[in-house]
Known about the structure:
This protein is of the alpha+beta class. It is built from 9 helices and 23 strands. α8 (375-388) links the parallel β14 (345-350) and β15 (393-397).
Amino acid sequence: MSLDRRNLLKAAAAAGALNVLWPLSAGLSPAQAREAAEQLGAAWDAAPFTLGVASGDPLPDSVVLWTRLAPEPLAAEQPLPDSVDVDWVVARDRDLRQVVARGTVPATAALGHSVHVTVSGLEPGRRFWYAFRALGKRSRVGRTRTAPAGRVASVRFASANCQAFHDGYYPAHRGIAREDIAFVVHLGDYIYEHGQVGGQALRDHEGPEVFTLPEYRRRHALYKSDPALREAHAAHPWFLTWDDHEVVNDYSGTRGGSFAKRRAAAYQAWYEHMPHRDPAASTGGTALPAEPRIHRVRHWGGLLELTVLDLRQFRSEQNLPDGTILGAAQRAWLGRGIDRAPDTWHCWVNSIMLSQLRGKPGGGYMFTDQWDGFLTERKDVLGQVRRSGLEDLVVITGDWHSAFVGDIRPDFDDADAPVIGTEFTAHSVTSGAYSADWNAANGPLMGRANPHLQYFEGNRYGYDVYEVTPERWTTHLRVVGDRRDPASPVTTLTRFHVDRGRAGAYEDEATKGSPAQYRRD
C-alpha cells in the first residue's frame, strides 16, 4: 500500500476531515500507520529511540534519565526481544567526552521497553548531558541538571499543563525548550484518553477511546510525535504530577471493579513514558507498584521547597461530608510538612484549582471536581497553614485552560479572613478554553462572586515561568500567538509579583495594560 501526503489529503478532503484517515482508523498496519501519521504532520526521532529522551526529579546528587525503545511507536507490541540491553552515559559536555557516569540497563517488554536510570553521585547545582545506545543506534543528546545544595541566589522554572493533541500544535513546548530555566513542572493532563474529535481538528487522536495498556501506550506515543514536546523534555529535567485525563475524565481514585484494571493500565503507561522516580519500582525493569508514588517534597537549595501533590489517586467521590482529595496518608504527610516547614519559599504543585470559584454572585461552585468538592478537607488544610505560621506560600495550578491569579484564604467565605498565600493557575498548552464571548461575559461575574480573585484571562494559550529570589517571586504569563502554528512566537502577557514576608500578589505596573477579562481594582 503506497501512502503519500497528496493522496491522504485528497481522500481526507473528500471525506470531510483529515482525521478520517488518521492512523489505525482504516485497518492500517503499524508501519503504514506510522507512515500515514508522518505524512499528516507527526514526526518521531530515529528508531529505536523514536520517543526521544528525558530527565526528571533532580536531587543535589542524582537525576532520573528516561527513554523507551519503540521502533514502531504506534504498534501494540514492539518488534523487539523480551529484553534489550541499553547503554547510557552522562558527561559534563555536550559532545559526551568528559564522562562522569555510564552503565547498562535492561529494557524489558514488561515495562514497554522503557528505561529509568537513577544516576547518583553527581555534583550538585550543575548541568550534564546524556544519551542512550541500543541495537547499534544512539539516541539524541539530552541536557539535565542537578539541584543545588545550600544558598541559592535565584531560580527560574516553568510549568505546563493540558496539552490536548487535537487542539493544536505545541509552540508552548518549543518556547519552554528555549527558556533559560532550571526545570519544568508538568501539572497534569499530559494526554487525553477519549477518541477522535473529528470536525476541524488540525490533527486528531489515532483511534477510539483508550482502555488497555497497549492502547494507553499508543496514545502516549502519539503525543510524543510532536517534536516540540520531545525537545522540551530533552532540554530540561521535569517534575511531574497528573490529573484526570491520564486515565479518564473526572475520575475518583477509589472507584473499584473493572475501573481498577483500566486505571492500573493507565498508570503503568504513564510511568513507562515519563522521567519519574518511583522508589518502589523494580530496578530490573519488570514491575511497577500498584500505587505509584507521585507526592514528594524537593528542595532547590535553601531557596525553594517544592511540594508535589497527587490529587487523583487517593481521592473519594466529590461532595461528600467527609470526602478527601488527598487520602488519609497523603493528608497526614502534607500536615507534617506544614508543621515542619523551613524558612523558605513554599510552592505547592497542584493539578486542580485550590481556591473557591463561584460562577456568579450568590451562585454555586463552578466545578466540584476541584477542591470546591472537598470543602472540609480544604478548610482543614488551609486552617493548618494559618495556625502553623507558614509564610511565603505560592500554589501553581493547571486544569482550567485559562489563567487566574487569586489570594488564598483559610475561609473563602469570610471576607475578613487573612491572605495566607497566592495561587497562580496557568493557561493550557493547547486544550480548548471557553470562547472569547463567554470569557468577556463571565470574567466580571466570577470577579464579583469571588472577592479573593485578582485576575482572569481565558483567550490565550501558553505556559508560566517563575523567577524566584530570596526577596521576590515573579510569575511571567507566557503566551503563544497561535496554537495552530507550531512555530508561533512566545511573548509575555503580564507579570505578577509576590514579596517575601508579605502574602498576596500584585501585577507589574509595566504590564497592567495587557488584555484580560477581569482585574480586581
